[in-house]
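Backbones bend. To wit:
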Amino acid sequence: MRRFLVVGVLLAGCGGSEEPQLSYTELAERTAAAMCTYAERCDGSTGPYEQCVAEVLAAYAAVEPELNGGVSGAKSGCVQCMRIRTEELESALASECQRAPDAARVSAVCGVDDSACAGAP
């Protein structure tokens, strides 16, 4: 009986540490929010936040059909790009703009001219 309890505790400890799986749209929303918040707080953008978010979301929505119909794995590459970009922007925001996003890391995952997301930011 004790063995089952130990195994149960070990298995329970294995789950829950991963980031929840977000849909493409949910991740695009999170990325847009991070990009626009960063632009506003750290880059001094004076444009309307809501407009910024709408433009970024429209860009991701526009390329989604291309990513779905293109090369196998294209959409997952874009998702990875969005995750890395969001991590970097959120880290910069958490530092109150003292730490710049790691552009080399973003570029390594997103490609030249954001090619991983077919040009969407």
In short: Residues 1-17 have pLDDT under 50 and may be disordered.
